[in-house]
């Protein structure tokens, strides 16, 4: 008898077919609306594998409902939406998708940085709203990118890929991470800085670290106050790393110059969020990895992880821990 898998969003046909060759697949029929909690809890009770996304909260209650679950495979590199401790206690493997989205996410991070520094969205709005007037000397002036200092917090795969883009713009790069990485300093031409110095010296502060309880609101009022008045904060990691109230105050009061944000504490972000009302914020709907090739690559990798684990080849899967 085939093992059973529940998929929490509608998958492209090719992926559905691939999984169906191996497993009895049940799937939530929507692409954009996450599976309702009560359906997730009901479905997970009877399956061997769960294929999920960052929009699903896979907490202890989910694992407690599961009777024979062996694997949760998320179609994402981040797995902060999964209680990995509860999974481990139940002997459930957690799969994720490292590597495949690195360059695409670094591209978007740099695009967001450029759009924020050069006020691309605001300038485009002015044109479309008929407010261009005429060319004037200081109209829509932004911040230079070439030759500026970038501070990267979190030097994982995506952080490193971002360094390569920064180097193409002759930027000085500082980094801060849990442990110092002397071999990377040499290889990439970057300097380690403690968090305070990095915040004080950088023109662009880019958050490139995974979310965990230890880094909740790592960037708050005090940290923002350390930054330069012309500095820009870029967050393509996770919303919870930044205290959004402190950030919107800092942006309103000229404590920092601008922010490019692809991730929010609550997603989808409410239109009432004060950050969305500020002209010096470029806000995007969590699209860091959103290229056709990369999203399909992630979806296939998550399927591979599930197939490997359910077939007893854990060693071939990308699993946490
Ligand atoms: C991830 O993979 O964790 C991103 O946030 C979504 O691509």
Automatic annotation (TrEMBL):
Family annotation (Gene3D superfamilies): NAD(P)-binding Rossmann-like Domain (3.40.50.720)
Database matches in Pfam families: 2-Hacid_dh, 2-Hacid_dh_C
Domain D-isomer specific 2-hydroxyacid dehydrogenase NAD-binding, chain residue ranges per copy: 110-288
Matching PANTHER family: 2-HYDROXYACID DEHYDROGENASE YGL185C-RELATED, 2-HYDROXYACID DEHYDROGENASE-RELATED
SUPFAM superfamilies: Formate/glycerate dehydrogenase catalytic domain-like, NAD(P)-binding Rossmann-fold domains
One GO cellular component, as annotated: cytosol
InterPro entries listed in its UniProt record: D-isomer_2-hydroxyacid_DH, D-isomer_2_OHA_DH_cat_dom, D-isomer_DH_CS, D-isomer_DH_NAD-bd, NAD(P)-bd_dom_sf
Family of the protein in this entry: Belongs to the D-isomer specific 2-hydroxyacid dehydrogenase family.
Keyword NAD set for record: yes
Domain of life: Bacteria
Protein name, entry field: D-glycerate dehydrogenase
Keywords, ordered alphabetically: NAD, Oxidoreductase
Sequence ranges assigned to domain D-isomer specific 2-hydroxyacid dehydrogenase catalytic in this UniProt record: 7-315
Keyword Electron transport part of the UniProt annotation: no
Gene Ontology molecular-function annotations: glyoxylate reductase (NADPH) activity; hydroxypyruvate reductase [NAD(P)H] activity; NAD binding
């Amino acid at each position: 008898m085939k093992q059973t898998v529940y998929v929490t969003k509608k998958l492209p046909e090719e992926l559905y077919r691939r999984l169906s060759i191996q497993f009895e697949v049940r799937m939530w029929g929507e692409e954009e609306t996450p599976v309702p909690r009560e359906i997730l809890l009901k479905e997970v009770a009877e399956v061997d594998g769960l294929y999920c996304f960052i929009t699903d909260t896979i907490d202890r209650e989910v694992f407690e409902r599961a009777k024979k679950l062996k694997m949760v495979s998320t179609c994402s590199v981040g797995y902060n939406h999964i209680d990995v401790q509860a999974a481990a206690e139940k002997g459930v493997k957690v799969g994720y998708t490292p590597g495949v989205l690195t360059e695409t996410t670094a591209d978007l991070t740099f695009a967001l940085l450029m759009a924020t520094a050069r006020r691309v969205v605001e300038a485009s709005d002015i044109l479309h709203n008929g407010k261009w007037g005429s060319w004037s000397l200081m109209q829509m002036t932004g911040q230079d990118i070439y030759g500026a200092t970038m501070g990267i917090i979190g030097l994982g795969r995506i952080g490193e890929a971002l360094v390569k883009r920064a180097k193409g713009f002759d930027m000085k790069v500082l980094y801060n991470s849990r442990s110092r990485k002397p071999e990377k300093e040499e290889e990439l031409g970057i300097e380690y800085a403690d968090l305070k110095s990095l915040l004080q010296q950088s023109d662009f502060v880019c958050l490139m670290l995974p979310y965990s309880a230890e880094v909740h609101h790592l960037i708050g009022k005090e940290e923002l106050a350390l930054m330069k008045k012309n500095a820009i904060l870029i967050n393509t990691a996770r919303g919870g790393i930044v205290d959004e109230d402190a950030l919107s105050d800092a942006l309103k009061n000229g404590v920092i110059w601008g922010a490019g944000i692809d991730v929010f504490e609550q997603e989808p972000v409410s239109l009432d969020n004060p950050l969305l009302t500020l002209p010096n914020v470029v806000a995007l709907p969590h699209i860091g990895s959103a290229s056709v090739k990369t999203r399909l690559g992630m979806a296939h990798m998550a399927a591979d992880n599930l197939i490997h684990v359910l077939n007893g080849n854990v060693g071939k899967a990308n699993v946490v821990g």
